[in-house]
Amino acid sequence: AQSVTQLGSHVSVSEGALVLLRCNYSSSVPPYLFWYVQYPNQGLQLLLKYTTGATLVKGINGFEAEFKKSETSFHLTKPSAHMSDAAEYFCAVSPTGANSKLTFGKGITLSVRP
Amino acid sequence: KAGVTQTPRYLIKTRGQQVTLSCSPISGHRSVSWYQQTPGQGLQFLFEYFSETQRNKGNFPGRFSGRQFSNSRSEMNVSTLELGDSALYLCASSPRQGDNSPLHFGNGTRLTVT
Question: Which of B105, B109, B110 to mutate to test the interface with A (most CBs of A within 10 A)?
Fold first, then answer.
């Protein structure tokens, strides 16, 4: 079975500060990992994904994540937060290496202070 | 290209009733997945359809069912509604089933059961 843990439910940063959202996974097979963002009253949008190859993955809107097998982590970062980054962020893992049957973490709400 | 369309956006039903939610995928997408999102349980996979066949199923009771039509549009049905079925139901589509193409989510149908 696979699972994802996102510690904490809320992160608050100042505009221009570093954003760090943590995700740890548990998987019995090589994991395929995703970060999604959800804005209020909207569906989810893919930020980035790790399948195979390079462990540092760059996504949209300046976000990136690094896959660390030794730490079973896939933390999401952005060097400088913008007000428009305020949203809920979900880490997800796939059991098949594909886009099917994703298991999501509980989500983290990011607030950005002016 | 139009995105994933879910109808209706909001729905209020009474316990014991049944409900049908509709999802129109992006043109050309043949795989449709459904997820339930609640504050307590987060995002949970319901089922996935491809070529009118259910390919994967999550851990939900038989009251939850779905189907896919030849034009790839999908519906999900919940019978004998319970208060705990109140949730945001998200539909996602992708070109194919079981590959690395990203899921495209609709804005969801918010179901309230009273």
Answer: B105
